[in-house]
């Protein structure tokens, strides 16, 4: 699954191991990619209503990406500057 995520989100044809750092009020997920030809950073934000958020993205022409991850679907949005955001519902 991680190789599919690496390909779909970052254009990399390899598995990307993930390290999670969790604190009381924040969680940071780091994709490990040695010798990557480009960086693979993204930020995760939580929204009250994922459906409404996706509707607004469509209205504004914001690219969204939805990928299966196990039993769930993970959602990403890419802003006009190319920044990648993982979107989760609170």
Provide keyphrases for this structure:
alpha+beta; 90 residues; 6 strands; two-stranded antiparallel sheet; 39% strand; 2 helices
* Chain-averaged pLDDT: 81
* Spatial extent as radius of gyration: 14 Å
Distance N to C terminus: 24 Å
Following the backbone from N to C, one meets helices and strands in this order, namely HEEEHEEE
Structural class: alpha+beta
Please provide the count of β strands.
6
Major beta-sheet overview: 4 strands, mixed
Largest sheet: spatial strand order: 3-6-5-4
The helix content is 10-25%
- β-strand amount: 35-45%
What form results from the Cα inertia axes? globular
* Count, helices: 2
Q: Uncertain segments of ≥5 residues (pLDDT<50)?
A: none
Helix and strand topology:
Layout lengths: L1 H9 L7 E5 L4 E5 L11 E5 L2 H11 L2 E7 L2 E7 L5 E6 L1
Parallel strand pairs: 3-6
Antiparallel strand pairs: 1-2, 4-5, 5-6
Describe the 3D structure.
The chain contains two helices and six strands; from the N terminus they run αβββαβββ. Helices cover 22% and strands 39% of the residues. It starts with a helix and ends with a strand. It is α+β, with helices and mostly antiparallel strands. The strands form two sheets. The protein has a four-stranded mixed beta sheet, with helices on both faces. Strands 1-2 form a two-stranded antiparallel ribbon. The model has no long low-confidence stretch (mean pLDDT 81).
């Amino acid at each position: 699954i991680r190789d599919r995520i690496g390909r779909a989100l970052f254009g990399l044809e390899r598995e990307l191991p993930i390290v999670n750092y969790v604190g009381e009020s924040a969680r940071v997920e780091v994709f490990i990619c040695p010798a990557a030809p480009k960086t693979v950073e993204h930020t995760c934000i939580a929204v009250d209503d994922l459906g409404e958020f996706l509707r607004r993205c469509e209205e504004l022409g914001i690219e969204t990406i939805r990928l299966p991850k196990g039993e769930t679907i993970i959602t990403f949005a890419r802003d006009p500057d190319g920044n990648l955001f993982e979107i989760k519902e609170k």
